[in-house]
Design a protein that fits this description.
The structure is a single chain. With about 160 residues, the protein is mostly beta strands. It has two domains: about 120 residues, no CATH class; about 25 residues, no CATH class. It has one helix and 15 strands; from the N terminus they run βββββββββββαββββ. It is globular and about 65 Å long. The two termini are about 15 Å apart. Bound molecules: zinc ion. The site of zinc ion has 6 residues, from loops.
């Protein structure tokens, strides 16, 4: 099954036009249970058929629980101006990124495909169970008013 580790819902569109929305993973603020599908049912989908739910969680408050990469902003190196722009704009050294966190280890027998951001996918290494939404110019995603409303492909990390 799909597990969405981005902070936002992602809509997938199949070749026949069928759409399927994957809500982001959430965590119960009360008991700490993980809602892997973002649908209010607390389940552990790490192995096929091994699920459970706690009905009391239905009334609890959840927070989105995305995977993350810690980042450290660069430092201001100099200011670059232009004619008529004497104040200039600050030029910073590049942002330093830490290791990806908040994603389960790869399980070769697993049933989950984890959807992450392109930035995260680029830093997670070669994993067959990690994908990111195809939103590049040639990826055929569906846009309305400039916003992506559905993707037609997922791209492997
Ligand atoms: Zn709960």
């Amino acid at each position: 099954m799909f597990v969405n580790l981005t902070p936002h819902a992602i809509t997938l569109q199949a070749a026949d036009g069928t759409r399927f929305s994957v809500r982001p993973r959430r965590k119960c603020r009360v008991c700490g249970e993980i809602d892997w599908q973002g649908d209010g049912n607390v389940r552990i989908p790490l192995t096929e058929g091994m699920t459970y739910s706690t009905p009391e969680c239905k009334s609890h408050d959840f927070e989105v629980l995305p995977a993350r990469i810690d980042s450290t902003p660069g430092v201001c190196e100099f200011t670059l101006g232009a004619k008529g722009f004497d104040a200039g704009i600050a030029i910073y050294s590049r942002t330093a990124y830490g290791l990806p966190a908040g994603i389960p280890d790869c399980d070769p027998n697993g049933v989950n495909t984890y959807i992450v951001s392109a930035l995260f996918a680029g830093r997670v290494g070669d994993r067959i169970d990690v994908v990111y939404p195809g939103t590049g110019p040639a990826d055929g995603c569906i846009r309305e008013n400039g916003q992506v409303v559905a993707v037609t492909r997922l791209i492997r990390a």
